[in-house]
Structure formats: structure tokens, C-alpha cells
Amino acid sequence: MATRRKGASKPQSESPLGTYRSKRNAAKTPEPMGDGPRARRRKDLPVFVIQEHHARALHWDFRLEHEGVLVSWALPKGVPEDPKSNHLAVHTEDHPLDYGSFEGDIPAGEYGGGQVRIWDHGHFEVEKWRPDEVMVVLHGSKVSGRYVLFPTSGKNWMIHRMDPAPEGFQPLPEKVRPMLATPGTLPADDTGWAFEIKWDGVRAISFIEGGRIRMLSRNDKDLTPSFPEFRELGAFLGARPCVLDGEIVVLGEDGVPDFGRLQHRLHLANANDVKRQSAASPASYVVFDVLHLDGHPLMSLTYDERRVHLEELGLSGASFATADSFRDVRGVDILQATKETGLEGVIAKRRDSAYAEGKRSTAWIKVKNVRTQEVVIGGWTDGAGSRAGSMGALLLGIPTAGGLRYVGKVGTGFGDRDRDDLMDLLRPAARTTTPFIPPSDVKERGPHFVNPLLVGEVRFSEWTEAGRLRHPTWRGLRSDKSPADVVIES
Ligand code: MN
């Protein structure tokens, strides 16, 4: 065995293409074997190619022409645009020069099975080529600039951008606070407004980079592990780093979002349950906005301008879709259509409005067919009869500056498991003193009080003059919201 520099695999192999051919069966893969006529020797600059490879794990193969072969690295997150973030580059076997124009499908079961397409290609200048340092200046259509590759351990190298980030480049933000809609009625004049269906689910901002997706709820809960089905959205967008805004929904038997089923998806304790439920109650991500794309923030653009970028992404897959935007139509017609199909309502959005991060804005108005209200659970009453030993009703409040204001109790609308599941959450939060102000407001017999931390949602018919919910029905927990988010919804 040849002696190697400790900790580094050389960026060229001793017997050109031997390893490459030993990994592939020419009868089964459409990839070039490099045994045809020798590629014409170029007099101009050597070539590079970056191939997006949808193998078991999505990656980008980065190949540089050197001494008659393509010296290759696999980049799990692609080529960095930001000099502050180095990306892993796993040194792989040399490939034949004619691999540089290869695009196609490597059959499943073969080495590297999956789709290969050229993401970028061009020429490059060599500034240094040593066993432990390769410095090049790329001239591609997507990537240009000076890059250096250097080994860190074994086959693992890093790729670092030495030039400043491209003009105007901004890295993906870590967090984005969603823009919120103001509850209200349809605009008096439809001019200048777009209408979207209000999806009854959980708001989620997703951060996609290097083919990977990360999703955060309104209160910064990481939703990614709960919804493995959305990984395909990361792979779908490939090397287009972006931040998307949308709603996660689970459809019921009637094709209408079922908040209860979605709620169960949010409270699964282990990966096996998550896997089983993602098959039994698959979720969909309805994307209605794009806030950052290809290294550029878009929040200051107008709604119409952001829609152009969103539609250009062509989001359409088994688990994700672009939300419809109805323009040059009457808002009342859209609202009526949602009422007839059992949907929650519409959101009217001003077409000339920017994305107001973290603000409840009047540029977005939510108009609902049913009245719902978020509430904070402050206690429970004992169940009677068949419910003895469990919960009878939940005591509900709305946070105010002075404390939790009691707004009534809800004793209906619970699913089979809901009462037991709620008791499991409430018992450990029990306390002896009332969280409500004034304390005398709770007239129930033998109430149990809890620390007011859990947020839920009820349907109801109207507010009474005394400030109580009339005919409330339980809809489910809102673990994506914090008590501080709860406000009277008009
Ligand atoms: Mn590959």
C-alpha cells in the first residue's frame, strides 16, 4: 500500500479510474466508463462541473479536471456562497472526463442510485494544486470566485470561499417571526387585495438550505422531527436556499383540514409513533409566501412581487403545494365558496404590502366563517357519571395586564382520548391557588387549578355581556402558541 500523508487522502489517485470502474457495472448504469476515445486535450482552461445527485442522501458532486480525470468531492450541502460558512467536501474517486456532461438516472440498487443533473459547469484557473490544498478560481454561471479545498481528516475535506460573498448576498436568517393577520371583515373595496383560503392548521416557517429543511412554529418550536414527510420539500428545492411561510394541515376524510388530527401529530413522543402517524395521517404544507431566496431577503418586496418568486419555485409535491392566490375576483365570492366547502375562512392581503415580520398587520385581514378563540387553561372540574375520575370541563381564561381573566368553561367537543391526554398534562401542573382574577369569578364546585401555561382553542357562538364564551366547543390544544400570544379575536 502506498504511503499517504497522514490524515489526508490525496486529491488524485495512483491508477486513474481504477476505483471508479471497480464501483460500477457498465451493463447496469448509464454513466460513462471513460473507456471511449480519449477526451480532446483542451488548450484553454480546465473544466469543472457540479452535479446535483439525488442519491439516498442528496449531495452535490464537485469535480475538477486534473491530469486527464475529474478529481471529485461530494458536498452534502453544496458549494458555500458565504465565506463565513465552510462546507464539508468528502473526497471521492476520480471520474472520467466525459462524466462532466453526464446527466441521467442511475438505477436503484446500483452505486449512487438516483437522479444526476448538472447544477453548474464552467472553466477554472488553478492557483495551487497540492496533495493537501487545492485552490481554484471558478468561472461558472451560478458559482464564480476563489475557493480552497483542504483535508481535515481522512476523506473529509472542507471547501471554503475565499472571495467575499456575492454582491448583496445575505445568509439565511436563523429565525423569522411570522407576519400575523388582523381579525376583521372583508375589505369594502376589493381593488388592490388578493384573497387566500385560510387553512386551519399550524403556522410554520421553513428554512431550506443545501437540500435540508428545518421548520419552526410561531413560538420557535422545532417542528422538523414531527413531520418527516416534509423532507422531500428540502430535496425538491435542492440548492435554492430559501425561507418559506405556510400552514401545516392534516386533511380529514371529507378533504377539509382536521385540526384534531393535526394536533395528535404534534404530541407524539417517539420516532416510531411519528413514522406510523405520518403514514396514517399525512400532513401537507401549504406555502403562501417566500421571505428569502438564493441569498437575498424578499420581505421588503410587495405581496405581488413575492408571489412571482413563489410561483416560479413551482412547489408541488406529495406533501406540499403553493397556496392559491385569488386576484381580480370578489372577496365575498371566495368567502362564500369557503363557507360552502366547510373551510375556515379567507385571508385578504394587500397586494402592495411588504412582509411585516412579527407584526399583526392590517395589510392582512382574516375573515372567518366560524368564531374561534384561543384560551389559556387555568383549571378543570371533576367529571361525573361515566367520566368520574376524569375531567368534566376545562376552566378557561384570557391573559390581561392584571392576570388571567376567567371567560368560562368548556365541557364538550372532546375526542375519545382528549380527556385522558389533557389530564396527563394538567395533573403535573396543578396548584392550590386560583390563577384567575378576580378569584371569585370561578363559581364551579371543587375546581382544580393549574399553572396557566397550556393554550387551547374553542369554537363559540358569541361573547356574553359578562364577557363569557357562549356555547364553547373544544377544538384542541395549541402547542404552537404561548399564553402571551392569546388575544381576544374581535
Ligand atoms: Mn454522487
Please give a structural write-up:
The structure is a single chain. The protein is mainly beta and 490 residues long. The chain has 3 domains: 18-161, no CATH class; 180-368, D-amino Acid Aminotransferase, Chain A, domain 1, CATH 3.30.470; 372-485, Nucleic acid-binding proteins (OB fold (Dihydrolipoamide Acetyltransferase, E2P)). It is built from 7 helices and 29 strands. It has an 8-stranded antiparallel beta barrel with strand order 1-2-3-4-9-8-7-6. β8 (144-153) and β9 form a beta hairpin. The structure holds manganese (II) ion.
Characteristic terms for this protein:
3 domains, disordered N terminus, OB fold (Dihydrolipoamide Acetyltransferase, E2P), about 40% strand, elongated, eight-stranded mixed beta sheet, D-amino Acid Aminotransferase, Chain A, domain 1, mainly beta
Distance between the termini: 77 Å
How many domain modules? 3
The second-level CATH architecture of the largest domain is: 2-Layer Sandwich
Q: How much beta, percentage-wise?
A: 35-45%
CATH superfamily of the largest domain: DNA ligase/mRNA capping enzyme
- Number of E strands: 29
Rg on CA atoms, Å: 28 Å
Poorly predicted segments: 1-7
Q: The CATH topology of the largest domain, please?
A: D-amino Acid Aminotransferase, Chain A, domain 1
Ions, cofactors and other ligands present here are: manganese (II) ion
Q: What is the number of helical segments per DSSP (H or I, 4+ residues)?
A: 7
Judging from the principal axes of the Cα atoms, what is the shape?
Answer: elongated
Class by alpha and beta content:
mainly beta
- Order the strands across the largest sheet as they lie in space: 1-2-3-4-9-8-7-6
Multimer state: single chain
CATH class group of the largest domain? Alpha Beta
Q: What percentage of residues falls in helices of 4 or more residues?
A: 10-25%
Indicate the mean pLDDT. Answer: 91
Profile the largest sheet. 8 strands, antiparallel, barrel
